[in-house]
Design goal:
With 146 residues, the protein is of the alpha+beta class. Helices cover 16% and strands 21% of the residues. Strands 1-3-6-5 form a 4-stranded antiparallel sheet, with no helix packed on it.
Length: 146
């Protein structure tokens, strides 16, 4: 059996280990045996997934259809952008939600040339002019239209 000291003497292992430069460049690599230590990850990282996210439903669309009875504050349409435009006695919120301003019945109108859709509320008590317009009509001597 060969002992360890004879192997080291024969291969010159002592010289190889002691004379190794600390930082080895590409040009110095051919000069002698170099020891390179690599550190491996102790645990592999978890893979990412593209699933697992889901947003709440926004519940958009028409809530009150043509001919339905509505009271002030009822939401007629929830929408993104102005797919439907507010008409008579219909208000629009900051998120483009259309809601009623008076009690009555809903009706939808579509302009033939432009294709723009309007939502109106026909008041239950009929068409009522705003007091400013009725006062202007009586001052000018005309009969007020109610």
């Amino acid at each position: 059996m060969m002992n360890l000291s004879s192997i080291c003497r024969r291969a010159g292992l002592k010289d190889l280990v002691l004379n190794v430069p600390v930082y080895v460049g590409a040009s110095e690599a051919s000069e002698g045996l170099t020891l390179i230590f690599r550190r491996w990850a102790s645990k592999k990282t978890a893979g990412s997934t593209k699933n697992g996210r889901d947003s709440k439903p926004k519940n958009l669309g028409v809530k009150k259809f043509g001919g339905e009875r509505v009271i002030p504050g009822n939401i007629i349409v929830r929408q993104r952008g102005t797919r439907f435009h507010p008409g008579n006695y219909v208000g629009m919120g900051k998120d483009h939600t259309l809601y009623t301003l008076k009690e009555g019945h809903v009706w939808f109108e579509r302009h033939k040339l432009s294709g723009r859709k309007w939502v109106h509320v026909e008041p239950a008590e009929g068409h009522v002019l705003h007091p400013i317009y009725t006062n202007a009509a009586t001052i000018s001597g005309e009969n007020p239209i109610c």
